[in-house]
Task: inverse folding
């Protein structure tokens, strides 16, 4: 509704991304709705950090992350990438994690390193498969103040400030600005890259 009030057309589609056929239908519906797509951003992910899911056993969290974050990203990217290549152009952006390659301790660190590391590696390979027609890049956010960040313990708040050279949490707007740039003609010579939005926590 906020988007529509700003005078921009918007459409909402719901899909169970753990279902392969639902992923295919989502791309088909979006493509038909807009008469093609210029940019596709895979930003959906399983929330295993807050609410009831935070108390799930490790195995259930792993299953959910692999289904929603990894498998859905791969299926959606391949389906929309095929259509974009046939249409002659397009941009696909995926979501990784800045510490997937360097690692972080604990169950969540292990889970997200596995899931997001897979997405980052897949994005590099898909970029080669779809070049030169379609660009594929991956955003790797660091400590972004999402729902989990808002409720993080004082010790985590201090850890984020201590480990971040820019001494603050990232904002969703920081990630959105990076995505907007990667999707724009200004980044037309970039593909197969991982862009870390993390205030300098992990440097490559």
Result:
């Amino acid at each position: 509704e906020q988007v529509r009030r700003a005078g921009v057309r918007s459409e909402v589609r719901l899909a169970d991304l753990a279902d392969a056929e639902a992923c295919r239908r989502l791309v088909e519906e979006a493509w038909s709705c807009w008469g093609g797509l210029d940019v596709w951003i895979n930003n959906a992910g399983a929330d295993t950090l807050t609410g009831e899911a935070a108390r799930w056993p490790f195995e259930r969290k792993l299953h959910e992350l692999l289904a929603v974050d990894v498998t859905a990203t791969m299926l959606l990217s391949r389906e929309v990438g095929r259509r974009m290549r046939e249409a002659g152009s397009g941009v696909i952006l995926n979501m990784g994690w800045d510490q997937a390659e360097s690692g972080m301790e604990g169950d969540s660190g292990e889970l997200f390193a596995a899931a997001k590391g897979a997405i980052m590696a897949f994005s590099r390979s898909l970029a080669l498969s779809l070049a030169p027609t379609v660009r594929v890049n991956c955003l790797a956010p660091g400590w972004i103040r999402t729902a989990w960040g808002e409720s993080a313990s004082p010790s985590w708040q201090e850890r984020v400030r201590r480990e971040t050279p820019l001494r603050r949490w990232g904002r969703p707007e920081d990630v959105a600005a990076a995505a907007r740039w990667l999707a724009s003609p200004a980044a037309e010579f970039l593909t197969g890259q991982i862009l870390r939005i993390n205030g300098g926590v992990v440097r490559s």
